[in-house]
Amino acid sequence: xxxxxxxxxxxxxEITGRTFTIEAGDTDSLxxxxxxxxxxxxxxxxxxxxxxxxINGMTAVSPSDEIALMPPYSGG
Amino acid sequence: xxERNPRYDRHYVLAGFGDAAQDKLGTARVxxxxxxxxxxxxxxxxxxxxxxxxxxxxxxxxxxSNLQRQVLFGTPDIGKLKTExxxxxxxxxxxxxxxxxxxxxxxxxxxxxxxxxxxxILDCTDNFASRYLLGDASFLLNKPLVFGAIYxxxxxxxxxxxxxxxxxxxxxxxxxxxxxxPSDVSDCNEAGVLGVLPGTIGTLMANEAIKLITGIGxxxxxxxxxxxxxxxxxxxxxxxxxxxxxxxxxxxASGFRQTDYEWxxxxxxxxxxxxxxxxxxxxxxxxxxxxxxxxxSHELPRAGFDHLSLPLSEIKNNIxxxxxxxxxxxxxxxxxxxxxxxxxxRKFGDAKNISHIKGGMIAMEEHDYGKTD
Lengths: 76, 373
Fold this sequence. Notes:
By secondary structure, chain A is α+β, with helices and mostly antiparallel strands.
């Protein structure tokens, strides 16, 4: 597994910073790693986009990918 | 072609728009659900653009803290129904369109009937229960849903249930299959919001509605745009159908009517009684009663009546015993107090009467009650 680049939005970014790197080989291990490093986010639901496409199942990731974590917003 | 109306001259002469697009607006029916931060600007531009029939659904009344961003309303309107004042302003802006008013919240009993009368729905609501309800209802009815949502300085914009170039139409559940946990949710009351943000996102929602109706440009169908007002960073991602969403939402009208979105989204009050700010004074005089502030100790304003301080973060670790039988918890907006009340209920069961103050300190301030500097 290698470090991948993450772009975070909304409340997630307030906890992680707008960008960070984390070791992961796929989106499942990525979610787990995020929850371990940031326990406040262990239960948080968010959409994951890999190269600007929202994933719809476990997806392999590599250091060349751009990964975005997007929580739902509710304000109006 | 309809007769030209000088009101829309700038649309008639606009290359790529013209009479044909204006005529489509004139026969369109658009429903705006929520006449708040997003709804106000969306309604203004849709009315100005000459949408034939504009529906407004909202059960709320105008309060002072709305005026920082809800630009259809003025200070003398405080306490009046949002739908009533919005309709009044929009009729003055454009008396040549039909405006239909639904002065109550959209719920599972009325949603399908109301939504089915419209071509395009705008989700300008401010909570997840309404957003999942509207997402599922518009999916069931196969109505395009223009989605806008905001958080502090960032807005999300998308169009659901509208086929993109590949013929696929994704829904809100394809992006966010399950509602988040209540502890992950903060609304404008609690998180704050830059007033210009809903103005910007609401205006873009009107733009998406106009694009859907007239066919101009490329809509955000199957795409989610996030816009950050602090630096204008814009991020657009593509949404694709997510397997398994069909098991998460109601499959029929009757299934929809039986779905409890408040409960699904963790906002159900359940067996926790709500105290409205007006009644706090009465309860203060009740025997065997304690008020508990569950905000962190640094949070202001302080309550101007006798109370204990026990932050939610501590309640999660340990709930101390108390001799009082009646416990009333409160926080800033009523969200954390509800969570605290459920934790207390779990510990004390029926041995105590647990209630929380609806709307918290914000609502009490608006009633000018219970505040000290």
